[in-house]
Design goal:
9% of the residues lie in helices and 29% in strands. By secondary structure, the protein is mostly beta strands. The relative contact order is 0.24.
Length: 161
């Protein structure tokens, strides 16, 4: 599915091909929460990095935050690079050199209507602020850290999407 996105001020527009466009993971980690989480979380989806087409590239800046590694407990630089519009501050996408072939646009920057996921996963709830309430009913799944759902592609395959 081709996705079109933009920042709030429209200085940056982009398109990207996403074989996995269902926004099913709500991330409450400190990085997502503090860089994109107005509701206490952020949602990224998977897309193909080589398909990313950008207009207004001169208005893009990158931020590589520090974080507490959940596996080691060490406060360290995140390898993930967060891209945003340097005019209005809108978050655009995350790119991580560990998965060079992928880019993860923020759902909040996508202008294309997205499909509704059959379930949602709330992840890194051990970082969730107390003021955020998550309902315990419905198809939503809850995880203290990263869930064992496999890759985005595997989740889509498991759900026939």
């Amino acid at each position: 599915m081709q996705l079109n996105g933009s920042c709030c001020c429209k200085s940056v527009t982009f398109s990207v091909e996403s074989p996995h466009p269902y926004p099913f993971m709500h991330c409450y980690c400190s990085i997502c929460r503090k860089t994109q989480g107005g509701g206490g979380f952020a949602i990224n989806i998977g897309a193909v990095y080589d398909s990313l087409q950008i207009e207004g590239e001169k208005h893009i800046s990158c931020f590589s935050p520090m974080y507490t590694n959940h596996e080691t407990g060490v406060y360290e630089p995140s390898p993930g690079q967060r891209y945003f519009c340097n005019q209005c501050g809108s978050g655009l996408w995350v790119w991580d050199p560990r998965w060079k072939e992928l880019v993860h646009p923020y759902v909040s920057a996508i202008d294309t209507p997205l499909p509704i996921p059959p379930e949602r996963h709330h992840i890194f709830l051990d970082s969730k602020p107390d003021w955020v309430h998550i309902s315990e009913t419905g198809a939503d799944k809850q995880h203290a850290g990263y869930p064992d759902v496999g890759s985005l592609a595997q989740w889509h395959e498991q759900h026939g999407l």
